[in-house]
Model the fold of this input.
Amino acid sequence: MYLRLSREDAAKDTFCSHPESSSIASQREVIRSFLREHDDMELYDIYVDDGYSGMNPDRPELKRMMADVEAGNLNCIIVRDLSRLSRDYIEAGRLIQKTFPAFQVRFIAITDGFDSLTADGNETFFLLPVRNFINDAYCRDISERVRSHQRIKRENGAFIGAFAVYGYCKDSTDKNRLLPDAYPAQIVRKIFAWKLDGMSAPAIADKLNAQGVLSPMEYKKSKGERFSTGFLTGAKPMWSAVAVKRILQNEIYTGVMVQGKSRKISCKIPRCEAMPKEKWVRRAGTHPAIISAGDYEAVQRLLQTECRAVKGETKAHPFSGLLFCGSCGEAMVRRVNRYRGKEKVCFICSRNNGGRGCSRHTIPEEELYDTVFLGLQSQLALFLEREQVWGRLSRTEAASGEAACLEGELVRLRKEQKQYLSLRSGLYEDLKGGVITREDFQTFRRLYETKYRTAEDKIKKQEAALHRLLAARETKGTELKHLKEELTLEALDRSVLISFIECVRVYEDKRIVIRFRYRDRFQEAVMSEIRADSRGKETV
Done:
């Protein structure tokens, strides 16, 4: 007997000591009942594929059964119905009409009333293919329904993954919501902090392994999760540079749900294809953030430039990934020159260092530090003098009129949509009662259906606009809070550089141009203050 089910449940079969799906137990009992009525049959073996799709031909127990068929160990196969053997129209037809007859194997599908021993040509070549085609179509229909349901969930910001990403766990009351998992969330914060402090991905991985921190896969196993991955490289999974980079590049740690990165090609092909980035589904504010948006953006900028530690050091130089040639745009490299026991450190253009045409753009390390430090001090002094700017920024952040308008419009649209649904539902009663004709029924039904869909489209657009607004407000508030906390400058180190500077460009004449972070925020606030002062003067 061959038994198969694509979904597991918590029922326990009375014939076995291990948990399995109740439908497997039901299939077994139907076949056993059939066998009790046929004394000429002897049970050879039971083949059970519990948790495998009927569209998947690569089932372990199906393979074992076919090996026994080829070895001549059995000459009859019984299933509860045709869909248990396969839901693939072509595969089912090949097995039943070609493979089984070739090995003189009788095939019985009990509830479908098919027995290859007694079936005539009409059943074998007409009714059987039709039933297999229906099973195939059913599977495609279920696949489309599942895809549609998952798409709606993704658009609503619900998490639909089988396993929560490292650093999070599923909410016990809502499996589609993520919550921070205390221990791994702490590790994620350390990884980002170490990266901002100048450590490379391999160095971070080595440090985690040295401290005995469980890798993401080992941590999931320690919690009893049946997790597997294609990135396994050894018997015991360890931290690697690739694993560290995957965490550093994952936007989900900022509270933004990013899903739909890949999709299954077909219900018949167990392979996925990558989706272009513009088609990913992003929803902000769906779960608590572990990493601030500012730190995440700073790390992404650092990852774009290779940051390697000086030989003998574990951390990169403070200016690594931030210092560039003003002429060609290439990164500047640190050079140590030793002469008569004295050491002189400077930075030069990497293109000149590699003999690719640009000039040296040399700048001594000490001069670079002093210039950048003075530039930061003067910039921060300017900011600190503008108390009114901070007040205006706070008032701007507190203004939520636009969000309130969007929410109000959503309430109105949902009410309007509900009204169209009610009107459409009442048409049948009007038709039945003779209030309207069938022609009017069809006309009004199409009209209400169109209005309902139009309202639905407007609701989706309003929800998307609200999501964007809330995400922008949250990001801006986080950035300003971060800047206020670090506004006092006492020393120049990597954390200060990452917090306040996007890049530093050095030109041939030793001119240095510093591109600050948050410049747009302050410029916007200053302009708002100027406009406000102008209006005040005009009023006076």
Observations:
- Residues 253 and 290 are 5 Å apart (CA to CA).
- The radius of gyration is 34 Å.
